[in-house]
Amino acid sequence: xxxxxxxxxxxxxxxxxxxxxxxxxxxxxxxLMAHNQIGALIVxxxxxxxxxxxxxxxxxxIVLHDRLSKETPVGDVMSKAIRYVRLNQTxxxxxxxxxxxxxxxxxxxxxGLLIGMVSIGDLVRNLIVEQQxxxxxxxxxxxxxxxxxxxxxxTR
Length: 156
Prior knowledge:
The structure is a single chain. By secondary structure, the chain is α+β, with helices and mostly antiparallel strands. The chain is 47% helix and 19% strand. The protein starts with a helix and ends with a helix. Keywords: CBS domain.
């Protein structure tokens, strides 16, 4: 059975997420991402979510356009179309959204509030855990049936 976003968040070691004001400089955003070893920040204006800024935004909208990161506000380079998920959605749905939209981070919204962030890395780790569990169950099943077959042969 596919895990839900709620289950995924509860299994994460670090459930924190980071935000930055739209008026902050891109330099400050990149500095915050580097310090926290993350690839995206939720952009806010007061209490409202206004976008998301990623390392990819920095590379494509600052570096390639020869803009100054210390003078450019995050609001000028952030992605305004925010894709997000809710707690009851599955990890499979998250993968679909990320793949179709070519994104690597999904904010998690519950009751209109930002409560977390899911990354492609989180989903891949979860997929590996699910596959390992399935493999373990299949190995146990095979060993169990082989053992039962051996006992059946011996009792005849």
